[in-house]
Design brief:
It is built from five helices and ten strands. With about 180 residues, it is of the alpha+beta class. The chain has one domain: Glutaredoxin (3-Layer(aba) Sandwich).
């Protein structure tokens, strides 16, 4: 399992717009319609990455904990499905249902959205405020497959809670780490 760190998009960057297919209901959804009133967490994930599978339950819980506070979550998979067929859209839909994702799980077939976000790994996280300005990019927490650190979502939860409470978000942010995005 290759370990790739996120590229750390500069804070203050405006979220690139997109309109992608939601694999669960097969409808096109845009960032404009999915964004939260307080903030929006865009997560680049996939079905097969051990780093994503390790934290999948926490991703589901994050959405459940923060949607009522105005932060919507959006997951995007940009992996090449020819060489990684386990990431095909129909399997994304099954994964989303099995993992109890209450957020849309979108498919980036062209990989243009991953490139626009400068996403590098799965999972890769981008938290935007109500104006879609980047306020946090980095790791979920210190847990990784096999390192025995508990999965808490500590780093993202601190940023999301600060955003909800209109408090400053720590600008010292540690990159996420996971499998590289499977480019075509």
């Amino acid at each position: 399992m290759a370990r790739t760190e996120s590229n750390m998009m500069p804070l203050g960057t405006i979220a690139p717009q997109f309109k992608l297919t939601d694999t669960v209901d097969n409808t096109k959804k845009s960032l404009k319609e999915l964004k939260g009133t307080t903030g929006t967490l865009v997560m680049f994930i996939c079905n097969h990455c051990p780093f994503v599978l390790h934290v999948s339950a926490e991703l589901s819980q994050l959405a459940k904990d923060y949607i009522s506070k105005g932060i919507n979550c959006i997951a995007i998979s940009s992996n090449d499905i020819v060489n990684y067929p386990q990431d095909r859209p129909e399997l994304m839909a099954k994964h989303a249902i099995n993992e109890d994702y209450i957020f849309p799980y979108l498919y980036d077939q062209t990989q243009n959205i991953a490139k626009a976000y400068n996403a590098a790994c799965t999972p890769d996280f981008f938290l935007f405020d109500s104006n879609l300005e980047l306020v946090y990019t980095g790791q979920l927490d210190d847990s990784r497959p096999g390192n025995d650190e508990p999965i808490t979502g500590k780093n993202i939860r601190e940023a999301m809670t600060a955003l909800v409470n209109k408090k400053p978000i720590n600008t010292i942010q540690k990159p996420s780490m996971g499998c590289n995005i499977k480019w075509k």
